[in-house]
């Protein structure tokens, strides 16, 4: 079970990376308007664009099998846990949804706003798969009455006001991620040249690509402030458990790193390092969102009555 869940999480992370690679290299049209074939062939012509696009499709198909297997396995072994079922079938749902959206984008060209959702759904699938794998690995779904249940960690203590901050940060971070994906799909990365200033100004003229890129910067800066506040609040023993303090610290580190990786994307726009920095940015953003989702699970569990919980903590 754990092997399938872990493979699903790693696979979804790879899909996120390959999706960003497709967008950054302009390979979305590498297979024309054919799907699931590529330019009418099962094995496409060996052009860079077609191979990148077709590899993305192939990996998605393989990972989908892992996700399906994890969902079936969860139902057979862990259906007593509503939490495990939610993550397993949530992963399956968002995997199917992002695959359908990707197929429609090939056959019927979609707007940049819709295509940005493609990355957002993939991110939700990755986070669900990650939480399922972590839960299984740490014995979070041990059934009631099992001798191993007594070994599970109790629900973390998280003050109500902290739970609101955590949920708010996770929801807001998804909005920031969506805006970032919109920047990528509208090719607005070059709208703001230079960092931290935008085209040499604190507040540039907000039109076109400049406005889109600047909006993403402001949104990311606000997210960093929110994460700093959460990390500070979590450092107080009366507000949270050691587990949440550790998770909030990870969230802060990853948020800081993704801010500077975003800056490196701007600094390398006209160099050969641009693709690498852009992919690193995707990895860090995915990790940050995954940690925030984990913190949401902790907050959710802390708000539940002990007797109603499938297990106590991830």
TrEMBL record:
GO molecular function per UniProt: metal ion binding; oxidoreductase activity
Cellular component per GO, a single term: membrane
Record field: transmembrane: 58-78, 85-107, 119-143, 164-183, 214-235, 247-267, 273-300
UniProt-listed InterPro entries: COX15/CtaA_fam (IPR003780), COX15/CtaA_HemeA_synthase (IPR050450)
GO biological process: heme A biosynthetic process
Biochemical pathway: Porphyrin-containing compound metabolism
Location of the protein in the cell: Membrane
Keyword annotations: Cell membrane, Disulfide bond, Heme biosynthesis, Iron, Membrane, Metal-binding, Oxidoreductase, Transmembrane, Transmembrane helix
Chief location of this protein within or outside the cell: membrane
UniProt cross-references to Pfam families, sorted A to Z: COX15-CtaA (PF02628)
Membrane topology, as annotated: Multi-pass membrane protein
PANTHER family attached to this UniProt entry: HEME A SYNTHASE
Protein name, UniProt field: Heme A synthase
Species the sequence originates in: Paenibacillus ginsengarvi
